[in-house]
Design goal:
Elements (H helix, E strand, L loop, with lengths): L2 H13 L5 H9 L16
Length: about 45
């Protein structure tokens, strides 16, 4: 898993609440199996 994804999961867990960090982070980081890059900036290389 990408570091960015794990960092996001950690952040969501820290906030707490009744949420699924993996679902949220998958959406926000575009990590695997999402509808590709709708409104997401592609990584600059």
């Amino acid at each position: 898993m990408p570091k960015k994804f794990l960092r996001c999961v950690r952040k969501v867990k820290a906030k707490g609440g009744d949420v699924n960090p993996y679902a949220i982070c998958r959406k926000s980081t575009g990590y695997r199996g999402t509808i590709h890059n709708i409104g997401l900036k592609k990584h600059k290389r």
